[in-house]
């Protein structure tokens, strides 16, 4: 099949809205509230019911068209309903959807394709495990693998981190707001400092040194260390924590410490992988190779799929060492290969790098004139805008106003950060310059209006 140009993927008229939410959306949101779990999150803040998606655009049930700057939390890197992807997934669905872990052409082709784009130190030197379909499942696999290989059960993660909401992944996640009702979780978990330049009045070098010193103490200080560390889990750029980009030297320092103390470094690429940051993997920006790397979200290009890539020397599991019913969902594996091919064919890594820089440049112009824009940061199309009040403190209410104003004008953004005050932008990598310019203009106007 011909690989369509990115300009041909979208609803051309987007954004085009008429006082959303419309009556059909309101009715379906009410119905959802009546019959579904109260844990449903997104419609409580953006009360819209969707009907269709194309590329970087969405249509709701009332016919309103939106620019999508969130892409299902970075799931749809090659866009909604990309025909090059859906063709292969549909064909596979009609032949063999599910095959556990028996060998199939889609499965083996995906493993070989992932090896081609693996971090340099893992290329030709890795194994891949498919377990459950979510990122949390992949993180659970990393915990089991690290424990199995080291014989230890101490887990080191970072403040501000998010690794999922199953029991083990939640233990690594550092969010007491949501974790508190479910404790105790896994024992022997410690959270070290993650360098957050905007939040602290120290130089980048000082922040890195402080963070690494904490990890070193946990790994090796006689009177402060874990007695049994199994590994260090880190996001190369924190996602839910507010798109926090660590200074240079941090990830490499962790790599060195893990080597010194002979524990695996687990780099969580669930959000940052598959080209999101302008590199295949976030760790590539820092020339660091993880020992273990969970993958999900954009891996399946809209279909549920997660996996764990790890160094060949850690492949000590016996058959059945880590399994899951849906570890053989072939349509998602076909979709994954097609999405990688599409990214390569259209050089979307370069496109994400340039478009992300263009977006950040425009937002930094606003930062220079509007004191409520505290910080603009990110890599590629993984972007955060931290909003603050007149005293420079987190402004979650301002963010809520901005988000509402954006969707009322046809642009979908989401919130993140430790204080829910960071606008998160994760558009599909197929977003065009024109769409980005239009959407960012609406975001800028929303910030200006809400702070005037």
Question: How would you portray this structure in words?
Answer:
- The chain has 452 residues and is of the alpha/beta class.
- Among the domains are: 85-345, Aspartate Aminotransferase, domain 2, CATH 3.40.640; 388-419 and 438-452, no CATH class.
- Helices cover 37% and strands 15% of the residues.
- It has 14 helices and 15 strands.
- The radius of gyration is 22 Å and the shape is globular.
- The mean pLDDT is 96.
- It comes from Natronoglomus mannanivorans.
- Pfam families: Aminotran_3.
- GO terms for molecular function: transaminase activity.
- Keywords: Aminotransferase, Pyridoxal phosphate, Transferase.
Brief rundown of the structure:
This protein is an alpha/beta fold.
The largest sheet, given as strand count, sense and whether it forms a barrel, is: 4 strands, mixed
Name given to the CATH homologous superfamily of the domain at 85-345: Type I PLP-dependent aspartate aminotransferase-like (Major domain)
Poorly predicted spans: none
Which structural class is indicated by helix and strand composition? alpha/beta
- Give, in spatial order, the strands making up the sheet with the most strands: 1-2-3-13
Count the DSSP helices. Answer: 14
Q: Terminal Cα separation, in Å?
A: 51 Å
**Integer-rounded radius of gyration:** 22 Å
CATH architecture annotation name of the domain at 85-345: 3-Layer(aba) Sandwich
Helix content: 25-40%
At CATH level 3, the topology of the domain at 85-345 is: Aspartate Aminotransferase, domain 2
How many distinct beta strands? 15
CATH class division of the domain at 85-345: Alpha Beta
The residue-averaged pLDDT reads 96
General form: globular
Strand content: 5-15%
Order of helices and strands: HHEEEHHHEHEHHEHEHEEEHHEEHEEEH
């Amino acid at each position: 099949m011909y690989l369509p140009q990115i300009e041909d993927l979208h609803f051309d008229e987007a954004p085009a809205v008429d006082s959303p939410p419309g009556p059909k959306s309101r009715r379906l949101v009410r119905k959802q509230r009546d019959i579904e779990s109260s844990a449903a999150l997104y419609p409580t803040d953006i009360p819209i019911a969707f009907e269709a998606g194309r590329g970087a655009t969405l249509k709701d049930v009332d016919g309103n068209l939106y620019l999508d700057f969130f892409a299902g939390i970075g799931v749809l890197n090659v866009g909604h309903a990309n025909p090059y992807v859906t063709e292969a997934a549909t064909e596979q669905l009609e032949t063999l959807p599910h095959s556990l872990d028996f060998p199939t052409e889609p499965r083996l082709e995906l493993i070989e394709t992932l090896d081609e784009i693996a971090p340099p130190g893992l290329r030709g030197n890795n194994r891949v495990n498919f377990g459950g379909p979510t990122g949390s499942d992949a993180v659970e696999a990393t915990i089991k693998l690290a424990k199995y290989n080291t014989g230890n059960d101490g887990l080191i993660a970072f403040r501000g981190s998010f690794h999922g909401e199953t029991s083990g992944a939640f233990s690594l996640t550092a969010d007491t707001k949501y974790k508190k009702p479910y404790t105790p979780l896994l024992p022997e978990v410690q959270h070290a400092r993650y360098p957050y330049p905007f939040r602290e009045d120290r130089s980048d070098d000082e922040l890195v040194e402080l963070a690494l010193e904490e990890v070193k103490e946990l790994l090796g200080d006689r009177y402060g260390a874990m007695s049994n560390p199994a590994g260090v889990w880190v996001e190369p750029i924190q996602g839910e924590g507010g798109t926090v980009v660590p200074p240079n030297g941090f990830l490499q320092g962790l790599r060195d410490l893990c080597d010194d103390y002979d524990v695996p470094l687990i780099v969580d690429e669930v959000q940052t992988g598959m080209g999101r940051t302008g590199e295949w993997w976030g760790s590539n920006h820092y020339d660091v190779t993880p020992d273990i790397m969970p993958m999900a979200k954009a891996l399946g290009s809209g279909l549920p799929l997660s996996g764990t890539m790890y160094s060949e020397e850690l492949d000590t599991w016996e058959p059945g060492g880590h399994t899951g019913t849906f570890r053989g969902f072939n349509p998602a594996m076909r979709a994954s290969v097609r999405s990688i091919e599409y990214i390569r064919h259209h050089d979307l890594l370069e496109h994400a790098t340039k478009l992300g820089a263009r977006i950040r440049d425009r937002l930094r112009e606003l930062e220079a004139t509007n004191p409520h824009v505290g910080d603009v940061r990110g890599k590629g199309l993984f972007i955060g805008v931290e909003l603050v009040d007149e005293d420079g403190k987190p402004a979650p209410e301002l963010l809520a106003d901005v988000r509402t104003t954006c969707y009322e004008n046809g642009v979908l953004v989401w919130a993140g950060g430790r204080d829910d005050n960071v606008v998160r932008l994760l558009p599909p990598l197929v977003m065009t310059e024109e769409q980005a310019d239009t959407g960012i203009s609406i975001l800028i106007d929303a910030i200006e209006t809400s702070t005037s």
